[in-house]
Automatic annotation (TrEMBL):
Gene3D superfamilies: Aspartate Aminotransferase, domain 1, Type I PLP-dependent aspartate aminotransferase-like (Major domain). Its EC number is 2.6.1.1. Residues 29-396 form the Aminotransferase class I/classII large domain. This is Aspartate aminotransferase.
Amino acid sequence: ASRFEGVTMAPADPILGVSEAFKADTDPMKLNLGVGAYRTEELQPKVLDVVKKAESLMLERGENKEYLPIEGLAAFNKATAELLLGADNPILQQGRVATIQGLSGTGSLRLAGAFIERYFPGAKVLISSPTWGNHKNIFNDSRVPWSEYRYYDPKTVGLDFDGMIADIKAAPEGSFVLLHGCAHNPTGIDPTPEQWEKIADVIEEKNHIPFFDVAYQGFASGSLDQDASSVRLFAARGMEVFVAQSYSKNLGLYAERIGAINVICSSPDVATRVKSQLKRIARPMYSNPPVHGARIVANVVGDPTLFNEWKVEMEAMAGRIKNVRQKLYDSLSVKDKTGKDWSFILKQIGMFSFTGLNKEQSDNMTDKWHIFMTKDGRISLAGLSLAKCEYLADAILDSFY
Ligand code: PMP
């Protein structure tokens, strides 16, 4: 008998499990729209040219593999905070940001989760309904209580702004409010600049702490600055803000696990103390982070030529997604004889489209059409090619009606 008889089978992850099921399918028409990973028009993974250039620079320099400090690579931490807030942001000169390198977006969120659990016992994290599937796991494992605020309105396939504001208002004073900096996952629906101002008003009023998850900077609009404008708006009000960053999507560094947790504090003294505690949390978990992705980011962001080349490549990726978004909308509009308005697809931004397909309809997409997607009706347009838009439209219409 095994000592592990009591260990039950864990369910497959709702997002990464989709890729496993996709691999097992042998149909030639199969399409993986589950995980949000960028593909070329040929549906192949892409390594950015600037990443290859940064890597060859690193080889030429013969950089070593010594341990990084607990907080990660100093040049990366500097670059990542500057990318987030703008290099000339006075908050940086004032030394008010505690930044430590994290294991991509997920690991950075998890560090913040541990910090909240330790220093704000009992405080709740408010998360949007719906949200990226892993947010609930992260706060559950951090033993941080959470509840949801209204976000998506199925009637308009848009933002339930009044519901969102009401729920943030109704939450206990001093809660954390988790916000997607741009390109909300899974809905692709972001607040307008005016709505962000109102959200900031309510958060200030209630003494809540805003907590941004920035996983798509540059990928939503194609502009790094524009996609960080939500965070900068809160920071400019002098608020204390948490921000988790990821380079999985915008630099295509998925497997390098490179990101950061930034805590914007009211003074340099607070920032120093916060940083010391983040390091204390990281040390017994993984000791110190990996160097490779950090060097890539530091090289790309720190070198004006590579930085500009990155922007061009990112715009091209964001542009390809916009093209398939348009083509999918066109295909649906032409093929759908019911007169249904599909324009919500064009209003959504980022990698995803939230189709409004329910679980049964999403099952039909997979079972009958070999289109793999999460069961909440989300499809990753980054995994779609122009050539497959018609096929996808046929599948969506068949599943809908
Ligand atoms: N937050 C959101 C909203 C995401 O969509 C993702 C990636 N799917 C992440 C965080 C983190 O991803 P990673 O850990 O690869 O950086």
